[in-house]
Amino acid sequence: MLLAGLKTRQLAYLVLADGTVFPGYSIGVNSSTVGEVVFNTSMTGYQEILTDPSYDEQIVTLTYPHIGNVGINQQDMESPKIWAKGLIIRDLSPIVSNWRAQQSLVQFLNEQNMVAIAGVDTRRLTRLVRQKGAQKGCITVGNNIQASLAKADAFPGLVGKDLASKVSNYAIDPLFWGKENTAELIARKWHVVLVDCGYKRNIFNLLEANGCRVTIVSAQTSAEDILKLKPHGVVYSNGPGDPGVCDYAIQAIQELLQKNIPIFGICLGCQLLALALGAKTIKMKLGHHGSNHPVQDLKTKKVFISSQNHEFSIDETSLPKDIEITYRSLFDGSIQGIKHKTKKAFAFQGHPEASPGPRELEQLFKDFIGIL
Fold it and tell me: Which active-site residues does the annotation give?
């Protein structure tokens, strides 16, 4: 059992651009941070959430009130670092009691130089975000409310921001994963290129678990360079930011489709595939963030519980005739899955690799292997 690591409580505030102020206390570094404030309804998995690159430029509010009791361990990292711009919670557990824990949440936040606040009325904050939509906000340590309000108001938001190229971190993967091209991996039947738009480790894990040798390339890799690797298929990963400005990826997908290369898009990758096929994307009011979102398979009518993390969605009014909708959200009816009617290309808007979340949609990885 570890202590949470918080020795004293230092006053902190969350200040929203609309002027709303939430008091609390600091559980991270004594600084300030700005970003888009969203809420995540997952009951577990704060480590995976914080290290999901899709949260770049966002401040995450966890609606589950009791956070920190399971600590942090190296095995549950979804990327080598924290990508969220800030963390907002209700109650910090005073102890860490889990056999896998290697450090406390507070130790992790400080080690990663992250600003975080506890003691916030997260129910009130969540209701505000539900009513008004995702908010521009600033977390500050100390009584700097007016300056923080100005910082929050100046935050430009996510529309028009290319963050996929920013978070694409394939170059350090060998250091983080410790993977080597062993004879067993090289001899595998399927070779898949994973385009890193902000991918989570469990995408890599599930591709390998399904018998693939995986080569990771950056988000800006051209179709020509991908084809030089002679893949059996290509996966475009999750990631942050506005998909509409990722021209490099949209063009690459279009060229890969012309070569009849099988494509599987996940989250941002789903939006990129839709854009490559002629559809449009829109910024959502709230986005989807959580590991308890119901989606329905429109063919079988079966309902799955899914993990979600996205701020943009496909504009259904813009769908070309060669795209078929495969899944819908049962929360708001938005598109959750698409496939091309004639080509080997499909995508899912949520996170079928979960981490955190239910594993009901891991079948999509098997479906991808089935079209290679």
Answer: 267, 351, 353
